[in-house]
Amino acid sequence: MDKNKYLVVKGLAGLGNRMLSALTGILYARLSGRRLIIDWRDPTFSVNGSNAFHDLFLCSMSEPVENIPVTDSVNPAVWRGNLSQSATFMRKPYKNITEFWKNTSIDLTRLDYDEDLLIMWAFHGEIELLRNHFKEPFQEYSRLSKEEILKLTLQNDVQLHPTIRSRVNDFKVKNLNGRTVGVHIRYTDHRAGLFSILDKLNTLLRIESDLIIFLATDNIQIKKMFEENYSGVMTTNHWYPKPGARIHDNRACPDRLESGVESLIDLYLLAECDYLIIDSSSSYSYVANLISKAEKSNVFDATRGDKLAPRIRYLSWKLMLRLGLYSWGLNILSKIEKYKKLF
Q: Can you give the pLDDT at residue 306?
């Protein structure tokens, strides 16, 4: 490893996206022989500009520094003089997400950069862009799938902060002391396949009626719907925004770091369940599957077919918020589910 060469992984979007980006960065740093800095000082989870990554995780690869080394030897060049800025801030001039990524994150298919400092970020685990680098001494990766590589990296290089792990264990002992099914439903700017998830859950409960349901969701109305329609629903105590508004990047959040901790607790409790029902189009659900201890046959993915384009999804989210569909719409659905059980 070259002590004067660094890779900086910036945080962007929600927890699942950030974790997948960090895993990609860990692999790239290892492949390129660079020191690694995972920089989550942006206000999504950070308090007073501290690096939230190290409040949430332990990672032997990532150096727990609060300041990035100052240099003009930077790639992409747009980061020169902007090393302390967040990826969210750097996004402002770009309307096209592809153009934004191309201009503010290195090309992961290359390892031969001369610059001292490289900057990257990603929304997903970009393993396929690294495939051509899997040569000796990294040949073992070439035989593994994308999910296997991400899972292995997560297991070997990233652990929950001990204080968060303790909270996960305490909740599990007190509340999940039987056979469990973990259900994750994101229902804000990204909407999971709700009907498919409910169908899979109802089918499973007809086979094992005594299952404890552990629900992780970002929508308080989803929580209410489950509590009205199912017995034995367990949820952790955490802050919810108004129905339909996303938790991360929410100005109303009273404690952004604690919100990140609460999200991690839910994520790792999902992984402890005997069954898992998810929509893996959500990066959070995707990561839950990576760390899940459930048998493969006990993981049910309710991902629908092709989704609408990001711009259309964003506009439909805003319209649903304005019309209140995340409140009264889900109230109606809850009543429908209740009546369905009568027949």
A: 56
